[in-house]
Amino acid sequence: MVKICCIGAGYVGGPTMAVIALKCPDVEVVVVDISEARIAGWNSDRLPIYEPGLDDVVKRCRGRNLFFSTDVERYVGEADVVFVSVNTPTKTRGLGAGKAADLTYWESAARMIADVSRSDKIVVEKSTVPVKTAEAIEKILAHNGRGVRYQILSNPEFLAEGTAVRDLFAPDRVLIGGRETPEGQAAVKVLKDVYARWVPEDRIITTNLWSAELSKLAANAFLAQRISSVNAISALCEATGADVTEVACSIGKDSRIGPRFLSASVGFGGSCFQKDILNLVYICECYGLPEVADYWRQVIGINDYQKSRFVNRVVSSMFNTVAGKKVAVLGFAFKKDTGDTRETPAIDVCRGLLGDKAVVSIYDPQVTEEQVRRDLAMNKFDWDHPRHLQPVGEPADQPVAVTSDAYEAAHDAHAVCILTEWEEFRNLDYRRMYDLMQKPAFVFDGRNIVDPEKLRDIGFIVYAIGKPLDQWLKDMPAVAS
Ligand code: NAD
Ligand code: UGA
């Protein structure tokens, strides 16, 4: 049987390898990482990432055929198939800064593979990479190969955080791209046979390398585009009295459109949508396609607009100033059921409120105070580096508190902003919250999870994305900057 090693024990490497190990008990899977803290976490009772169902999967195969190690070179050297699932951040300096993918970690992984390999290997791109990366990797490996033969495959990952285990158990599709040579196709078959242990054959798609690489960027761009489309409509709903939930439901019934990914929100976050679209924009520019680049760039433009529109609503409703006013922020993770805060809209919203001198009190069931403070102190794009390499600015000397429950956050607050759709926020005792707060008391629902009418009956002034406005809000229109 093949031996598998995965470089990168992150949100993708950890869960995907755990599921492969679970479904293929006769395959040895070792996940390696340069971060000692991450590996120690994977070997402990408290995994380094929060993901429903993952603890159980890891417990069932760790020590049996699933191992986590910092001995990167040893396990890469021994493997037949090497997955590379390292960070591919956005470049912050030099050519393509602010758009292009920074392939530093990928390149160093490829050079290390070349250094330690003594037997032929299949190298699998699991990270999301610019189209044509496989060609660059082939060159690095070929020029440092010492006679070792390599086949590069593109096998992008489509899991979403919060549902990663479910997505990996029953993926919509598995995509494998390879060279159209007999050796390339033989490598595709090796990987296909691994997935075929639990994924129906008709869901395993094989393509050429460039289609697989580009499909991943395109899939994320299409998903993000749907959110920006509905968010753009949400602004028009607020201006006209239409209700974005009703509009989304109506258009989603059209089977050509479909109902998913049409929830208006304060904006999309997460480690990949923005990064991958910027990457796509850069690639289009490089291929001389400025119109195509502009088209996709606007998906991010609307997302930024949505976040600043939300902040402006908060400030304008509260007499055009939040200076010295306590604002409770419920939810800091970029979506529910994860502790991940990468590119979470909560960072931009908190920064906007702090910029207007608010006193911010944050509660999230899965995000630690240390993480919140790091996020608020970090420069754009710096988060996407292994933690020990992340440059963090001055500890934020800002009026920010992180609390251990929602009521403490709301105590004496003028407003509550809901920024993550955690289930527990649907079921809070809003009457109790109201009694704890300053008056007039405001709720700004950035996820459309509360019933505005019920809250209005309690006495709140309520803003919900894309929903008909209270008279109060109509009298104090927000202008997006
Ligand atoms: P992550 O930051 O959680 O994990 C990456 C890991 O790689 C880190 O632990 C880091 O220490 C390690 N690493 C970096 N360079 C290394 C090296 N040279 N040797 C050994 N380890 C090294 O990132 P992630 O969220 O798992 O994403 C990884 C890739 O997968 C990215 O390209 C991302 O775009 C893509 N992706 C992510 C998701 C997601 O939901 N997070 C989904 C699909 C695809
Ligand atoms: C997304 C894709 O869904 C995955 O297929 C992909 O593999 C992954 O990116 C990746 O490449 O990293 P993820 O970012 O984990 O997964 O989570 P999503 O469920 O896509 O949510 C992304 C953001 O969009 C969240 O902030 C979420 O709250 C927001 N969102 C989602 C909305 O605002 N409205 C929606 O209707 C759906």
UniProtKB/TrEMBL annotation:
GO biological process: glycosaminoglycan biosynthetic process; UDP-glucuronate biosynthetic process
Function: Involved in the biosynthesis of UDP-glucuronic acid (UDP-GlcA), providing nucleotide sugars for cell-wall polymers.
Record domain UDP-glucose/GDP-mannose dehydrogenase C-terminal: where: 328-452
Protein name: UDP-glucose 6-dehydrogenase
Organism: Triticum aestivum
Source superkingdom: Eukaryota
MF annotations from Gene Ontology: NAD binding; UDP-glucose 6-dehydrogenase activity
Enzyme Commission number: 1.1.1.22
UniProt xrefs under InterPro entries: 6-PGluconate_DH-like_C_sf, NAD(P)-bd_dom_sf, UDP-Glc/GDP-Man, UDP-Glc/GDP-Man_DH_C, UDP-Glc/GDP-Man_DH_C_sf, UDP-Glc/GDP-Man_DH_dimer, UDP-Glc/GDP-Man_DH_N, UDPglc_DH_euk
Active-site residues (renumbered): C272 (nucleophile)
The family this protein is said to belong to: Belongs to the UDP-glucose/GDP-mannose dehydrogenase family.
